UniProtKB/TrEMBL annotation:
This is Sulfate transporter. Keywords: Membrane, Transmembrane, Transmembrane helix. The lineage of its organism: Bacteria, Bacillati, Actinomycetota, Actinomycetes, Kitasatosporales. GO terms for biological process: transmembrane transport. Residues 10-377 form the SLC26A/SulP transporter domain. GO terms for cellular component: membrane. PANTHER family: SULFATE TRANSPORTER. Pfam families: Sulfate_transp. The chain crosses the membrane at residues 14-34, 41-61, 81-103, 115-134, 154-182, 194-214, 322-352, 372-399. It is found in: Membrane.
Length: 507
């Protein structure tokens, strides 16, 4: 009789796929609406993430789809290039990801500073929260992160004076409360995705009370497919658009591969093959670009739900794409009952979850320099934009690493000598100086100050064997100081372990 039933892991994958589908559905729609594109495009990206990326090798449990982390960049791209331009950018970014994966660059994305990635997520979270609070208040958000933050108090105060806006804000607030509190329910009720429950309740309240709030506009999934035209593809030759392509590829890849590392810590199954996962993400984004849909990344919310639901193989994430496809084909009209303030509430909660509060506190206690890089990256994203903010964060991280790598220590010790060939030892013998750490031009003033303070009436031995790096500037400065010190005093300076200058024959 057991032959009539699927293997145990298929039953577990089937159950997990249903859970992931229920988690992904409201997020696909919410991310699309927040990105300024039709809701159907979010479903298309979710379907591609399940059926295409989910079927490829790389990560066993990671689930891909439209992500809140790219909402800000997508919105800016749609404003500047339109939806057709977005498709061309996503197509090019996907091809770039595929090439990077084929060149085995996937593992190098793990070298990006964690503080920069967390700062990126925190900045994105702040921008999402600020923009969606305006949606919740029933008004348009101003352009620019600083303007949005500055205008929030007035927008929220104005919402209280308008009955329609107050109903919209209350619906969004209720959605956030349901999502935050639902998982605390005991028993099996807490296993149902809180975002789905919140959307259903918001739709029922809106319909029953006749609330004057906007709902999702739906025209049909197939009608939303618009491959990029020749003009959109031609815009890829512009330097500014190429910068946007690079930003999409780098940010989507970093978010996916860092997410893979986080998901790997949640299970004891096969680890992620980073290069293959990068290729899978690239192929998925290439197809999304051809369909004119949103970009996809691995999404930690869906991936963690997949693991917690007991998934065993890639079949779970693939099946979740099947359920999204079935919903898009048979029940797209249901989305017309979903109120936009409820989606705004979902994204406010998602943006809040992007801010790593525990990570910031831990960094502040142990590595304040890393915490400063995180905060600066987040602030730059809010102030000037996603791509510029990430570049600023990377630059600060590299500068910090260079400064720490050049940490230099200079220790000196007197060697006592006996008096009169056998009497009591007295100071005044050889002065031994040990230099350790990294001697770069950044530490050259400290090194020269320590050496030039040495007395000239005693023998000096400088031990450089403790240096793990000695750049050309410091080597030249030490050699010149030794020559000057020897010429000015009665005793020569001895330099130990000074690397030889490479010659043409030795190269």
């Amino acid at each position: 009789m057991s032959s009539f039933f699927p293997p145990p892991h298929l039953r577990q994958d089937f159950a997990a796929s249903v859970v992931v589908f229920l988690v992904a559905l409201p997020l696909c729609v919410g991310v699309a609406v927040a990105s300024g594109v039709p809701a159907e495009l979010g479903l298309i990206t979710g379907i591609v993430g399940g059926l295409v990326t989910g079927a490829m090798r790389g990560s066993t449990f990671q689930v891909s789809g439209p992500a809140a982390g790219l909402t800000v960049l997508v919105l800016e791209t749609v404003r500047n290039l339109g939806v057709a331009g977005l498709g061309a950018v996503v197509l090019a970014a996907g091809l770039l990801q595929t090439v990077l994966g084929a060149l085995r660059w996937g593992r190098w994305f793990r070298a990006i500073s964690l503080s920069v990635v967390e700062g990126m997520l925190a900045g994105i979270g702040l921008v999402i929260i600020a923009s969606q609070l305006y949606t919740a208040a029933g008004t348009d958000a101003p352009d620019g992160g600083p303007a949005r933050l500055a205008g929030l108090p007035a927008a929220l105060a104005g919402a209280l004076a308008d009955p329609g806006a107050a109903a919209s804000a209350a619906l969004a607030a209720g959605t956030v409360l349901v999502i935050a509190g639902w998982r605390r329910l005991p028993g099996r009720a807490g296993a149902v995705p809180g975002a789905l429950v919140a959307v259903v309740l918001a739709a029922l309240v809106t319909a029953a009370a006749g609330l004057p709030v906007a709902t999702v506009r739906i025209d049909g999934v197939l009608d939303a497919v618009r491959p990029p035209d020749t003009a959109a593809l031609g815009s890829l030759a512009e330097p500014a658009v190429l910068g946007t392509v690079l930003a999409f590829a780098l940010i989507a890849s970093a978010e996916s591969l860092f997410g893979a590392a986080a998901v790997d810590r949640m299970h004891d199954g096969p680890p992620t093959e980073y290069d293959r996962e990068l290729i899978a993400q690239g192929v998925g984004n290439t197809l999304c670009g051809l369909l004119g849909a949103l970009p996809l990344t691995a999404v930690i919310v869906r991936s963690s739900a997949n693991v917690r639901a007991g998934a065993r193989t890639r079949a779970a994430r693939l099946l979740h794409g099947v359920w999204l496809l079935v919903f898009a084909a048979l029940l797209p009209g249901v989305l017309a009952y979903v109120p936009l303030p409820a989606l705004a509430g979902i994204l406010v909660h998602a943006g809040w979850k992007l801010i790593p509060f525990r990570g910031i506190a831990a960094l502040w206690r142990g590595h304040r320099g890393e915490a400063a890089v995180l905060a600066a990256t987040a602030a730059a994203i809010v102030a000037v934009g996603m791509f510029e903010g990430v570049l600023i964060g990377l630059g600060l991280s590299v500068a910090k690493a260079a400064w720490e790598a050049s940490h230099l220590r200079v220790d000196r010790a007197d060697e006592p000598v006996p008096a009169d060939g056998g009497g009591r030892p007295v100071p005044g013998g050889v002065l031994r100086v040990r230099v350790s750490g990294g001697a770069t031009f950044l530490r050259l003033p400290k090194l020269l100050d320590a050496l030039e303070a040495l007395p000239r009436d005693r023998p000096v031995e400088v031990d450089l064997s403790g240096l793990h790096h000695l750049d050309h500037a410091c080597r030249s400065a030490v050699t010149a100081w030794a020559e000057r010190h020897t010429a000015a005093g009665p005793h020569p300076v001895r330099l130990h372990a000074l690397p030889a200058v490479p010659t043409a024959a030795g190269k």
